[in-house]
Amino acid sequence: MITVVLFDLDDTLFAHAQAVTDGIVEFSGLPDAGPRWHELEEKHYHRYLAGELDYTGQRRARAREFVDPLVLSDDSADAWFDGYFERYQGAWRLHDDALPCLDALADRRLGMITNGDLTFQTRKITGLGITERFEHIVASGALGFTKPDPRIFLSACALFDVEPADALYVGDRLKTDAVGAAGAGLTGVWLDRSGAATADDLRAAAASGVQVISTLAELPALVGRDQLRL
Ligand SMILES: [Mg+2]
């Protein structure tokens, strides 16, 4: 029986991509800045997750590549990023389906596993007003390994003192989140909000026993169904 439901934060509960777009458009004054800025985030944030850059380093790298790699000193890159960040922070909000889902699952033990810096992710969770709903928050930055490494999912299960089979993990990235969780023995759920799943994605999901949903509104029924089956 699923007693523990674990969530990814960015783009699962928290509308990160929209906040990033709103933040960069407002800060740069360029209405079409979103896609390029997303690309740079994806590139340099993954260098941070891979241990190539530290947290500040990935921010500077994003600022430099967006503005001008030759001109920005460390200080001006930091100041530039802070300016963007203020707008990004002003645009923080939950996805519309997040709170109803958390409400519907209030009889379960809830937790979070996020790839990121613990202090920053905690600040975000607090800013979103959902801290008290989660028993444990697990951030890769505090552990030294990132999703989809099975150890991060197993660490969360150990904190809750449950077997992986008693836990479900839902996230917006098929391999990093859902297949990773399934590989550690949890029930993996892929939240494909945009319906972007390809035939290959669906095959990979099925091969790992991953369930695919398009909105968090589908999650409580899925958790309940598991209970009925047992
Ligand atoms: Mg995510």
Features:
230 residues; alpha/beta; Rossmann fold; 11 helices; 6 strands; globular; binds magnesium ion
Total beta strand runs: 6
What is the first-to-last residue Cα distance? 7 Å
Order of helices and strands: EHHHHHEHEHHEHEHEH
Bound molecules: magnesium ion
Strand order of the largest sheet: 3-2-1-4-5-6
Summed up, the domain count is 2
Reported CATH architecture of the largest domain:
3-Layer(aba) Sandwich
Average the pLDDT over all residues and give the rounded result: 95
Instruction: Please state the overall shape, judged from the principal axes of the Cα atoms.
Output: globular
Q: What report would you give on this structure?
A:
It is a single chain. The protein is an alpha/beta fold and 230 residues long. The chain has two domains: 4-14 and 93-229, HAD superfamily/HAD-like (Rossmann fold, 3-Layer(aba) Sandwich), CATH 3.40.50.1000; 16-90, no CATH class. Helices cover 53% and strands 12% of the residues. The protein is built from eleven helices and six strands. It has helices spanning 16-28, 34-49, 55-67, 74-90, 98-104, 118-127, 140-143, 150-160, 174-183, 199-207, 219-229, and strands spanning 4-7, 109-114, 136-139, 167-171, 187-191, 211-213. Strands 3-2-1-4-5-6 form a six-stranded parallel β-sheet, with helices on both faces. Helix 1 (16-28) packs across helix 2 and helix 2 packs antiparallel against helix 3. The model has no long low-confidence stretch (mean pLDDT 95). The structure holds magnesium ion (MG). Magnesium ion (MG) binds next to loops.
